[in-house]
Amino acid sequence: MKKSTPVKKRLSSSKSQTKSKLPKALKAPSAFNACPVSTFKFRTTKDLNTSYDFISQDRAVSAINIGLGIRKPGYNIYVAGYQGTGKTSVIRTFLEKWSKKAETPNDWVYLYDFEKPESPIALQLPRGEAKRLKKNMSNFIRDLRYELPKALQSEEY
After folding, report:
1. Which positions ≥6 away from 8 have C-beta within 8 Å?
2. Any idea what the Cα angle at residue 135 is, between residues 131 and 138, rounded to 5°?
3. Cα–Cα 20 to 30 A to 105, which of 37, 54, 75, 126?
4. How far apart are CA 157 and CA 148, in angstroms?
5. Residue 84 contacts residue 129 (beta carbons within 8 Å)
6. DSSP code of 119?
């Protein structure tokens, strides 16, 4: 009985195959079409109002609006698409638009739990208080670094 040997086929990467699949190059006059300025009802784009519409994205816009309208824990918005297609700028624009109307949320601070280091303690504070807490804690630590050695080296200790 004969053993069959696998046949290796090499994919051709010749330039002649590639060239035949490419469209013909455009000539310069075909690549540009001037628009008569008289068709525009504005002088510069600065005269236009800001638009939050995204062309041909009705389904995506609707989904984002629904997602932003859900105000319950555990709901998130996931955006998928090719890199460089404007996903981040679209979401940022929506969030900026929504945040202008929305109430400023409370602050959240995560504190180290010495008994369970793998599980920080979540602390909700009134808006703006987290910054104040951070400043106060920094001042407290600075003062401790100065006062604690002084107290431990004192005669009373």
Report:
1. none
2. 140
3. 54
4. 11
5. no
6. S
Q: Which regions of 100-152 does DSSP assign to beta strands (E)?
A: 107-111, 121-125
Pairing type for strands 121-125 and 107-111 reads antiparallel
Residues in the chain: 157
Separation in Å, CA 106 to CA 101, 123, 127, 128, 151: 16, 10, 4, 8, 38
3-class secondary-structure state, position 109: strand
Burial of 61 (0-12, 13-18, 19+ CB in 10 A): middle
Please say whether the beta carbons of 102 and 96 come within 8 A.
no
Cα–Cα dist 145/135, whole Å: 16
Kindly report the pTM of this predicted structure.
Answer: 0.44
CA distance 55 to 58: 8
Query: pLDDT (tens digit, 9 = 90+) per residue, 124-155?
Result: 999 999 999 999 999 999 999 999 999 999 88
